[in-house]
Design a protein that fits this description.
- The complex is a heterodimer of chains A (485) and B (224).
- In chain A, 50% of the residues lie in helices and 18% in strands.
- With 485 residues, chain A is an alpha+beta fold.
- Chain A has 3 domains: 6-169, Beta-Lactamase; 229-316, Orthogonal Bundle (Helix Hairpins), CATH 1.10.287.130; 324-477, Histidine kinase-like ATPase, C-terminal domain (Heat Shock Protein 90), CATH 3.30.565.
- In chain A, a hairpin with a 5-residue loop joins β3 (82-87) and β4 (93-95).
- In chain A, α1 packs antiparallel against α4 and α5 (229-279) runs antiparallel to α6 (284-316).
- Chain A is rod-shaped, with a radius of gyration of 53 Å.
- In chain A, 23% of the residues are buried.
- With 224 residues, chain B is an alpha/beta fold.
- Chain B folds into 2 domains: 2-119, 3-Layer(aba) Sandwich (Rossmann fold); 126-220, Orthogonal Bundle (Arc Repressor Mutant, subunit A), CATH 1.10.10.10.
- Chain B has a 5-stranded parallel sheet with strand order 2-1-3-4-5, sandwiched between helices. Chain B has a 4-stranded antiparallel sheet with strand order 6-7-8-9, covered by helices on one side.
- In chain B, α2 (33-42) packs parallel to α3 (59-68).
- Chain B is elongated and about 55 Å long.
- The chains are: A alpha+beta (485), B alpha/beta (224).
- The interface between A and B is medium-sized, with 31 and 32 residues.
Chain lengths: 485, 224
């Protein structure tokens, strides 16, 4: 199915609508003009008839048509004047010479009321007639005593030739049709041009975008000053989208740059260890020791790649999530016990604030273990000596929240910087060391896992020296009914 | 020649340190940024090798602090950050060279040698002082065309004198250039090494040019 075209729709519908308006306007104008001409003709007929109809008189107790005398005296006028008068009583009519034996259509209304109508004259030409019901004029009642004009009603019809009028109307009609047709064509051309020009910037932007190279995608498109407002809005939305794409691409670029960095360092280690071993003849013990170190570096790379693969799978949503019932407090305690020796070396204590009855949730045991283990391990690594690591589990309107709080020796950055802790490969140099195995993927990994579980993770400062990490899982993950594991 | 090496990846740190030691340099090595800055401020180095991403202070921060304090010691930044912008940033901070990981040890050693020569305003890898000729690349020494075989410490000693020819060098200064772990207690031992070196230089009854300046130290006098 072909896609709709804005240009075609605009041209078609604008042309149709304006054509309808033009045609209706033309018809109204033509009708007004025709009515005006007819009114003028009717006034003329009325005036002429008014003069003549009084010449239907009573003479010698009979109806006498004096107008005939006037016609006889003027042959020119006689040949162009179409008058017929019917005597209602006898139904006989008296005609002007121009009618010959032909009769004119007879119409009349109330007494003296003028009825105008179109007729066809005996010579076949179009005509206009006025029909009037009258009583003959009784000029001298004393000469015709007892004559009752009411008993001799007459229908007076005067017709005029309207050939010129019809010709004028036909010409006017033709002019209107030609004018409207030309106007429609002109209008179509104007609408076409206006539409074409109006949509041209859209095409320019479209072309600019299609010609854009991959490396230029992040740069906003230039919005010309003369760009129509409607398209500016679209272009700005487009630029907003480009900016979002750029942020995403920048994150990807940073990820790969950091990845390259994290891989290059152990590779550099392997390379220099190997080169150094081969520079001079060495003892077997030396080689064995060096090979062990190289193996350690290879292990570092393997671990990094393994983490990255897991990271990538969760990011792409291909890591299957196995939802099962989990006792959160038990899971946290289990992780704490695995960190006991490290905590003891720094004289750290674990404080737990858990609900009295265990909270059982639906979640992926392995993934949640990774999250809790990462957060607790971070807290243990960076906590100030002889302080407490506080773990909390509570339920509120947001869902089920797990929080881990520890004091830190080094000054904490602003909350906006703390948000960056979750960026892949982010390492705040002052607090994290590669020697402890940190490459800055742990928290990023936690964020992806928590999001995959439908929850959220955040970090913020409490006072100036305490750092809190909160994991919130949706309430729907909670088992409300008692559950036995 | 004394080199400060700062790198937080232990296998890389150890292998580079060992290589530089085998090349005859005195090497102070650390994996911590703050410790590195302390070393740099409290010792005289011919070259500093500095990783950028370090715990504590970053390599760039250390470099910035050194330059701000007026220290013009040659600094080679070592980093996996290889984009042009990152390299330019490092050089703008005042680094003399930038080495991208992974690198060949030979290249690292060559760059270290170049920086040391540049520091002493010498362009060629062949150092000369009178009729003494040292090839810093091959560590070979000749006097008046006669090859002289030196131990690592003797070579370090001679190289130190050649770079500072006609200058009087104190015992303490010489010790710091020769000993890895000089603590100020064994400066008299240097007299023994000077004696060995002098004996080897006076080959074929050539005149003694390694003079003792009583109360001051020693001088390689090639203006004779």
């Amino acid at each position: 199915m072909p896609r709709p075209s804005i240009r075609k729709r605009l041209i078609l519908w604008t042309t149709i609508l304006i054509s309808i308006v033009l045609v209706i306007t033309g018809m109204i104008l033509y009708s007004s003009f025709r009515s005006s001409l007819y009114a003028q003709t009717d006034r003329f007929l009325d005036d002429a008839a008014s003069v003549v109809l009084i010449e239907v008189e009573v003479k010698n107790n009979a109806v006498y048509h004096e107008w005939q005398e006037a016609l006889e005296k003027n042959p020119q006028r006689s040949s162009e004047t179409f008058i017929e008068v019917w005597d209602q009583r006898t139904n006989q009519s008296t005609r002007s010479p121009a009618l010959g034996k032909n009769s004119i259509e007879r119409r009349s209304g109330a007494l003296n009321e003028r009825i105008f109508y179109d007729v066809t004259l005996p010579n076949g030409n179009p005509g206009r007639a006025v029909g009037i019901l009258i009583y003959p004029t009784l000029e001298h009642p004393e000469d015709d005593p007892g004559f009752q004009v009411q008993e001799h009603p007459q229908i007076f019809v005067w017709a005029g030739n309207t050939t010129h009028l019809q010709a004028l109307l036909n010409k006017t009609k033709s002019s209107f049709i030609i004018g409207i047709t030309l106007s429609m064509l002109l209008l179509w051309a104007i609408v076409y041009q206006v539409t074409h020009r109006s949509l041209a910037p859209m095409q320019q932007i479209n072309q600019a975008m299609s010609e854009r190279r991959v490396t230029e995608i992040g740069n906003p498109i230039t919005i010309p000053d003369d760009l129509p407002v409607e398209i500016v809005e679209m272009a700005e939305s487009f630029n907003t989208l480009l900016a979002r794409i750029d942020v995403s691409r920048q994150k990807d670029r940073d990820f790969f740059l950091n990845l390259a960095h994290e891989l290059r360092t152990p590779i550099a280690g392997i390379l220099t260890l190997t080169e150094q071993s081969l520079r001079n003849p060495r003892s077997a013990e030396y080689y064995e020791q060096r090979l062990q170190t190289i193996l350690g570096s290879v292990e570092d790379i393997r671990n990094l790649i393994s983490r990255l693969l897991k990271f990538g799978k969760i990011n792409r949503g291909t890591e299957p999530i196995d939802f099962a019932p989990i006792d959160l407090s038990a899971l946290i305690k289990k992780n704490q016990s695995s960190l006991e020796s490290k905590a003891a070396s720094k004289a750290l204590s674990f404080q737990n604030h858990f609900p009295s009855s265990p909270l059982i949730i639906k979640g992926d045991m392995e993934l949640l273990r990774v999250v809790i283990s990462n957060l607790l391990e971070n807290a243990t690594n960076y906590a100030t000596h002889e302080t407490s690591i506080i773990s909390r589990i509570y339920e509120d309107h947001r869902g089920i929240t797990l929080s881990f709080e520890n004091s830190v020796a080094t000054p904490l950055p602003e909350d906006s910087e703390i948000k960056r802790f979750f960026d892949p490969f982010y390492r705040q140099d002052k607090t994290r060391s590669r020697q402890e195995g940190h490459v800055g993927l742990g928290l990023s990994f936690c964020k992806d896992i928590v999001q995959a579980l439908g929850g959220s993770i955040e970090a913020h400062r409490r006072d100036s020296d305490r750092l809190v990490f909160k994991v919130t899982l949706p309430e729907s993950h909670l088992f409300r009914d008692s559950f036995e594991i | 020649m004394r080199v400060l090496l700062t790198e937080d990846y232990p296998p890389l740190l150890n292998s580079v340190k060992e290589c530089l030691l085998e090349e005859g340099y005195i090497v102070d090595a650390t994996d911590c940024g703050e410790e590195s800055l302390w070393y740099a401020k409290n010792h005289q180095y011919d070259v500093i090798l500095l990783d950028i991403m370090l715990p504590g202070l970053s390599g760039l921060e250390i470099l910035q602090k050194l330059r701000a304090s007026g220290d013009n010691v040659p600094v080679i930044l070592i980093s996996a950050r290889d984009s042009v912008g990152q390299r330019v940033e490092g050089l703008e901070y005042g680094a003399d060279d930038y080495l991208i990981k992974p690198f060949a040890l030979e290249e690292l050693v060559a760059r270290v040698r170049t920086q040391i020569r540049r520091k002493h305003h010498v362009k060629s890898p062949i150092l000369t002082a009178g009729d003494i000729r040292i090839n810093t690349a091959t560590k070979s020494v000749e006097r008046a065309g006669h090859p002289i075989s030196l131990t690592r410490k003797e070579y370090r000693l001679l190289e130190c004198f050649v770079f500072k020819k006609n200058e009087v060098l104190s015992r303490e200064y010489i010790c710091r250039q020769v000993y890895d772990d000089y603590d100020g207690t064994n400066s008299n031992v240097i007299d023994v090494y000077i004696g060995y070196l002098r004996k080897k230089l006076n080959i074929n009854d050539l005149p003694n040019i390694l003079e003792t300046r009583r109360g001051y130290g020693y001088c390689l006098n090639v203006s004779l």
